[in-house]
Design goal:
alpha/beta; nine-stranded mixed sheet; six-stranded parallel sheet; 12 helices
Length: about 425
């Protein structure tokens, strides 16, 4: 059985949302194909401290750019501010945007502390604007379809979730703060924000306890590179979640060599991240290497239309590693091409057609919130609860205790 990806909402009866961008780095680079291909979005301004990135944006979109993010937020021609700045600036940038009456789409992780998350939620409420947090991989179509199957009740209640992802995350080029946990570095802030969001969505939302261990095994990369966490939900379900970014085993082998972005991976590329990093002589050189890959960098494809062309016919859906959801009457295994369903009496595979636009579900939520005044699923309140779980993971690993994360809310249907 095949389920097609829902078609994007036509923008014919409403003008596109005018989006101003804060941060033209890696997050923006990954979202750019979505912005370019979805007719509901028009990029109209950008702010970034890097001059080359600003010049690239001006050339690609014939639109103004700013060195100062606050100046962008004051632009009256912007409806939505997309915040892809480094983690430590999300709270401040969200407050500036909201205080200027702009709706906000902010990248995960929402922020570094629960106090910052609450400030962001309060700023959106105070100014009557919508706050959507994403992209996280809980937006992925296979995950959302698994949630639909769970909510249908056909396979009974969720009892257990098992998920793991092994990548080379820690050996991709990093700025110094990305290797400092206190500044938002490490795999918990950047990667558990995906995994905990998925687990909370499928497990019911309300995490009752977290017990975790983390690994910091390379003195040259002095932050968490791995973790394992056991979560228990208020409804009695539990989840085991593991992540390693140490660049050895690649769990995409179990996904048919389909990578996180839905792209085909060549097994012969094994070890390339560590190899590239071995030629870097200093932190400054590593920062430059990362900047070169970002928008406007020397290693970036400079034609915006060319960057948009590649995702038009993606191989598969995006994913975040191996995942099995154990219900009373079936195990569900979402993957980049669909969902394997291991029921009591048979195994069958529900194919999901490849997405015409990557990450279109992010724009769906944003559009429905701003245009149709629908409360977004990936709201500030939802993301704050995920952040609470991630922070509990770090604290549990440090203290050796079970912790109950605050601010937990129910997982409704996206």
């Amino acid at each position: 059985m095949t389920h097609a990806t829902p078609a994007p909402i036509a923008a014919a009866n409403h003008p596109p949302l005018r989006v101003g961008v804060i941060g033209l780095g890696r997050a923006f680079t990954l979202m750019l194909p979505t912005f370019l291909l979805d007719q509901r979005i028009k990029l109209v301004a950008a702010a970034d401290p890097v001059a080359a990135a600003r010049l690239q944006f001006e050339a690609d979109f014939n639109s103004p750019t700013y060195e100062d993010a606050r100046a962008l937020c004051a632009n009256p021609d912007i409806d939505v501010v997309y915040i892809g700045s480094p983690h430590q600036f999300h709270a401040q940038h969200t407050q500036w945007a909201a205080d200027h009456g702009k709706h906000v789409l902010v990248e995960k992780p929402m922020a570094l502390t629960l106090a910052e998350c609450t400030q962001m939620v309060d700023a959106a409420r105070r100014n009557g604007v919508h706050l959507v947090v994403g992209h996280s991989h809980s937006f992925d179509r296979p995950i959302q379809r698994a949630k639909q199957l769970i909510d249908s009740g056909i396979y009974g209640a969720v009892k257990m979730i098992t998920t793991f992802n092994y990548t080379d995350f820690l050996y991709r080029p990093r700025r110094p703060e990305e290797l400092d946990t206190r500044a938002g570095g490490g795999v918990v802030h950047s990667q558990a924000a995906h995994q905990m969001d998925i687990v909370r969505l499928l497990g019911g939302g309300r995490v009752a306890s977290v017990r975790a261990h983390t690994g910091t095994w390379d003195a040259t990369r002095p932050t968490e590179g791995a973790y394992s966490a056991l979560l228990r939900f208020d409804n009695g379900a539990f989840a085991a979640a593991t992540y390693s970014g140490y660049g050895h085993f690649d769990s995409d082998e179990l996904m048919g060599n389909i990578g996180e972005m839905g792209q085909t991976k060549n097994p012969s590329d094994y070890g390339q991240a560590r190899k590239r990093l071995s030629n870097v002589a200093s932190a400054q050189a590593e920062t430059a290497l990362k900047a070169a890959r970002n928008y406007g960098g020397t290693a970036y494809v400079t034609d915006a239309s060319a960057n948009a062309a590649a995702p038009r016919s993606p191989l598969a859906h995006q994913h975040f590693g191996h995942l099995v959801v154990s219900c009373e009457r079936a195990d569900l295994k979402p993957g980049p091409t669909g969902i394997a369903i291991y029921a009591d009496d048979q195994i069958h595979f529900e194919t999901l057609a490849p997405p015409a636009i990557p990450r279109v579900a992010v724009i769906d939520e944003l559009w429905n919130a701003v245009v149709h005044q629908q409360v977004p699923f990936h709201s500030g309140e939802w993301a704050r609860a995920t952040t609470a779980v991630c922070l509990a993971l770090l604290e549990s690993a440090e203290t050796g205790c079970d912790l109950r994360p605050p601010f937990q809310i129910e997982a409704r249907q996206p």
